[in-house]
Automatic annotation (TrEMBL):
Transmembrane feature ranges: 12-32, 70-90, 102-123, 304-325, 346-367, 403-425
Similarity comment: family membership: Belongs to the binding-protein-dependent transport system permease family.
Positions of the UniProt region annotated as Disordered: 193-212
Principal place of residence: membrane
Protein name in UniProt: Sugar ABC transporter permease
Keywords for this protein: Cell membrane, Membrane, Transmembrane, Transmembrane helix, Transport
Domain spans labelled ABC transmembrane type-1: 66-424
Species, as recorded: Streptomyces tanashiensis
Domain of life: Bacteria
Bilayer topology term: Multi-pass membrane protein
SUPFAM superfamilies reported for this sequence: MetI-like
Biased amino acid composition, Low complexity: 199-212
């Protein structure tokens, strides 16, 4: 190997010196200072050794951060890479594949902060504001009938009593020809059916008739002035209220109140029975899932991350897929392999180097995730969604700042990233030698 002249080495060192100084000031010195600071106490006056690192295991919030980081490390890169692979393969088979790739990749143009604000609104608990719960409640109400009058109840002086499980029943059996009054209160005007009409006051028809009739209405007059247990002119019928006739513990007849509150039951089955208003009339309306609650906040934030980075994985995998020899795929199909076999035995193995690059890149990225968790997780659930990067910020700059613990977390994050980076560098060198 020819020896490099001294002059050229001096020139090379001169060109490298600015970069080395910048690298030392921005990388080497901060790492060294963080390692030293992690061995001292809060005030940087007493040497505490590994006590700050032991706090990562003994402190509950720090243990939660470590556990959540492991969940992120396992789930988020794998899901984003898998979705990117599926999107890259499927978009090759459709005409509008380019437009689809553009839509999927578009979230990459949004900052983490903006994405966090978007998904904070998406996961809003109120179905009228949160998209996720609006869809979830819509699907739920399609298959499960929603309550018509949540929190409705009878007046204390009315002959209705609690029947257990949230239902109400008449205290005395009903008789044919004797009108039954079922007044309720506690229904907000905005929750009344839009097509409800003024309640119809029932009239006695005399015993021996073939029906049991009655009226169910909202016993409330706006502005006051109404009489309790009496149908006043401005009071509305409880349209859709379900009424059951119960005899010996069994439902023998059912009816539904009309727009004016009237209902009718056959006398041959309802005469002498007790009328019951089942609990399904009064249960609270389904408001969806508490996406940002303690149990689901981490999966919810991971979902936002996957939404952003699946496009990145798709683009890289799509570039690798374009380099796959089509002759191999066609030969496999000619030999009788179906599409799943071609995908599993040929496409995926040939894309393995690209998949490793994507997976490793995303693993390094999730170890540093901070913005999404900080913005999406509300204050009440932030401890449950805690990750090391967020805990680093809270320990270093929070109200009870401890730079010793914060520096220890920074060193741990560096140690977690280093093995992944070493594996990636070795893989790149192997690829270069080929």
């Amino acid at each position: 190997m020819p020896r490099i002249p001294r002059g050229r080495r001096v020139v090379a060192a001169g060109f490298l010196l600015p970069a080395l100084l910048l690298l030392g000031a921005l990388v080497v010195y901060p790492i060294g200072y963080s390692v030293r600071r992690s061995l001292f106490d809060r005030s940087d006056s007493s040497f505490v050794g590994l006590d700050n690192y032991l706090a990562l295991v003994t402190d509950e919030s720090l243990r939660t951060a470590v556990r959540n980081n492991l969940i992120w490390l396992v789930v988020a890169p794998a899901v984003a890479t898998a979705l990117g692979l599926v999107f890259a393969v499927l978009t090759e088979r459709v005409r509008w594949g380019t437009a689809f790739k553009l839509v999927v990749f578009m979230p990459m143009a949004i900052s983490m902060l903006a994405a966090g604000i978007i998904f904070r609104l998406v996961y809003e608990q109120d179905p009228d504001r949160g998209v996720a719960n609006a869809v979830w409640v819509g699907v739920h109400d399609t298959f499960a009938e929603s309550s018509g009058f949540p929190r409705a109840r009878p007046l204390p002086a009315h002959p209705l009593e609690a029947a257990g499980g949230g239902a109400y029943a008449t205290k005395e059996p009903v008789r044919a020809g004797v009108p039954v009054l079922l007044p309720l209160v506690g229904v907000a005007p905005g929750q009344m059916p839009r097509d409800a009409r003024p309640a119809h006051a029932p009239t006695a028809t005399g015993t021996g008739t073939g029906t049991v009739t009655g009226t169910a209405w909202l016993d409330f007059t706006r502005g006051g002035g109404g009489k309790p247990n009496v149908v006043d002119p401005e009071e509305l019928g409880l349209k859709g209220l379900r009424i059951e006739a119960v005899r010996d513990g069994k439902v023998v007849a059912t009816a539904t109140a009309a727009a004016d509150g009237r209902f009718t039951l056959p006398a041959d089955r309802a005469d002498g029975a007790v009328l019951r208003l089942p609990a399904s009339n009064f249960r609270e309306q389904y408001n969806g899932v508490e996406w940002l609650g303690p149990s689901l906040v981490t999966p919810a934030v991971i979902g936002a991350y996957v939404w952003m980075w699946a496009g990145f994985a798709m683009v890289l995998i799509g570039a690798g897929l374009a380099a796959v020899p089509r002759e191999l795929l066609e030969a496999a199909r000619v030999d009788g392999a179906n599409e799943w076999q071609v995908f599993r035995r040929i496409t995926v193995p040939l894309l393995a180097p690209v998949l490793v690059v994507v997976l490793v890149t995303l693993m390094i990225n999730v170890l540093k995730v901070f913005d999404l968790v900080f913005v999406i997780a509300p204050g009440s659930a932030q401890d449950d969604a805690n990750v090391l990067a967020l805990q680093l910020y809270r320990s270093s700059f929070g109200t009870d700042a401890d730079l010793g613990v914060g520096s220890a977390i920074a060193v741990v994050l560096l140690l977690l990233v280093l093995p992944v980076m070493v594996v990636n560098i070795r893989r790149i060198r192997r690829e270069t030698r080929r």
